[in-house]
Amino acid sequence: MQNIVQKDGFSFAFNPLACSSCQGRCCTGESGYIYVNKSEIEKIAELLHMQVNEFTKQYLFKKGYKYSIKEIIFNDSHECIFYNRDSNGCKIYDARPLQCKTFPFWDYYKTRVDELSLECPGVITGKRDV
Ligand code: SF4
Ligand code: SF4
User: Fold this and answer.
1) Which helix H or strand E contains 6, and what residues bound it?
2) Residue 41's Cα: distance from chain center in Å?
3) 114 Cβ partners below 8 Å, 6+ apart?
4) Where are the domains positioned within the chain?
5) For the segment 54-70, what is each residue's pLDDT rounded down to a tens digit?
6) How confident is the model at residue 35 (pLDDT cuts 50, 70, 90)?
7) How far is the CA of 26 from the centre of ligand 2 (A)?
8) For residue 102, how far is its CA from the centre of ligand 1 (angstroms)?
9) Pocket lining: 90 vs ligand 2, CB cutoff 6 Å
């Protein structure tokens, strides 16, 4: 089957086609942290034609020694401020942080596949024949 993504070390696979109908569950829902490093901050600021300082003040908050992207609350859902509900997409897609690019293949989920399956309908578990 085409389009199915697999990664070494992970017991599950992922079907990106699921994203078109899932309404951004990985960008919405429970509150979380969307970490961005210095180069990612610069890249997103550039995409938005903003100065880094201005971008940081408007869109980020400090969590320990790191920066995370702010959320907004919509109908009890904590949504990344860059989630576009109208288009079901990411407003900074071309500069989205690595954390977003690598989802759902996070080390955290290697031992929490059940938890991941509840969040991401694109996850394929069990015997794979792809
Ligand atoms: S939760 Fe999964 S299926 Fe939904 S948008 Fe995110 S990666 Fe795609
Ligand atoms: S930056 Fe984009 S992909 Fe990442 S959580 Fe926000 S809306 Fe989703």
Assistant:
1) strand 5-6
2) 15
3) none
4) 1-26+103-130, 27-95
5) 999 999 999 999 999 99
6) very high
7) 8
8) 11
9) yes
